[in-house]
Amino acid sequence: MDVLLLMGGASAEREISLLSGKAVQAALLNLGHHVTVHDPIDAPPAADVLQRHDVVFLALHGTGGEDGQIQSLLEQANVPFTGSNADASRIAFHKGLSKIRFQQAGLATPDAEPFRIDEAIEKIQNRAARLVSPWFVKPDAQGSSLGVSKIDSPEDLPSAVDSVRKLDKAGLIEEAISGTEWTVGLFDSVTFPPVAIQAHREFNTYAAKYEQAAAKHTINRGAATEAEKQLMAVAREAYQAVGATGLARVDLICDVQGNPWILEVNTIPGMTETSTVPKAAAAFGWSLGELCERMCAAAIERQHHRNWTGNA
Fold first, then answer.
1. What is the pTM of this model?
2. CATH label, 2-82+290-310, candidates 3.40.50.20, 3.10.110.10, 3.20.20.70, 1.10.10.10
3. Is 85 annotated as a binding residue?
4. Is 204 annotated for ligand binding?
5. pLDDT of 75-99, one tens digit each?
């Protein structure tokens, strides 16, 4: 295949995108595919450039990569691309929108209150008071745990809101569920083994996600337990609730009673050496190269279906 790999970009997650992209590039080259790399830090490639390749592989993380912007451009250019369509990407990237979809699907997700950074801090504190503490304060539209704070009281909100302000115009105050963090990777009809995350910090921070030894990942390589089957089933429902296709990762937390809570769906999960999805795929029996190859083939098949039916 002739693959155009988009990596880098101008988001706060640029460095992680470059790491993901380099891993994907090496994996595809190792299987004999032709890979052209483009870094859309200033502008995405023109339509005629996009159309010269068999498929576009998206390794862009964060704003401009996962929020539906590049997906919309690729749909307009009528070229195959990996991952979810523009609508699903936009919904999954915005935590408030995806939480509504989870609730509509009857899925357990932590209670939360939205806010805008231009609101008076007293109003934000009043909203937080409706929730059980401790809380996570998050940007509405960011990934990799960027700008996330864990706080215990309304007095801590000003600094947490300041962290959000650096990255976004809106945020979410969310009840912190005590328990074990899990991620579940999904690829169309395939559900990979769940990965338990033991972060060596209070929660799975940006550093814990991408620094070696910052978190311990545990994967059951045998038959799934009943608890793991439940996690996989709930993750599948969340994947479907936002309309995801291709590869995605669902982040959950399992409380002390064993109940799974959906946190978010990531439509372009990390592909670095410390990322959970490549590890889960390997436990399933797929190398990174095979996973990337399957992603490209599925993207081409979806585009053929769109062209045949006229549906996105």
1. 0.92
2. 3.40.50.20
3. no
4. no
5. 999 999 999 999 999 999 999 999 9
